[in-house]
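Quick one:
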Amino acid sequence: MNDNNEREKQMSNLPEHVRKNRALWEATSDTYEERHITALSGENAMAWGLWRIPETDLHVLGTVAEKDILEFGCGAARWSIALALCGARPVGVDISSRQLHHARRLLDEAGLDFPLIEASAEEVPLPDASFDTIFCDWGAMTFCDPRRTVPEAARLLRPGGLFAFATATPIFMLCQNIQTDQIEQRLLNDYFGMHRFEWEDSVEFQLPYGEWIRLFRQNGLAIEDLIEVQPPAEATSTYRSSEETEWARHWPMENIWKLRKEA
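Output:
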């Protein structure tokens, strides 16, 4: 009981957006699992984004065996479990205890054991230069402030380490109707000053391209690639409707940044 009280006290001291997003995932993680279990499991575990494009097609992470890898916003940790089966040494961090409950269950089912940490990706309780790779498939890089997560990733990475994350594009956020939660074929939101998007039950973050680039450079991260994802002709998604998928065939809805910490 004392441990639970202490944890809740620590959570109450978190920034408002972290507490709001944590409450969302505490309330919805079970239904999220039910809805997306097929899209996230099996051969789809090591796949990126809304249309689950395989890592074997995109080659974002490269060789993972014998590498220390941190997953920002690991959820049920299927990515990290798959990486462990490939010889990596993963660590998962997530703000939601309920998400980590599912992760521990899947770890037991897989006969694996690696650290799962309940914390915000904006403030990870681990030492500097702990990891060869940090990655995020939407997760924390959507729901946390990049002005805090990018410096935190840079702190945790070893020289020459890889930081890769998939998230929405600024273009997508420009066309997102905040009132209806619908995507439109016109610009609706301001580009300059883009940062925080407030929804009824969550807060999401996005930056203009120039600010992303300056933020990376300020933290010693060199850009290796920006993959602007286009769903294949036959692709479907449990995250997006057929109309939204068609939108994404014409304009980039999600992208994957691939960055390298300078030696």
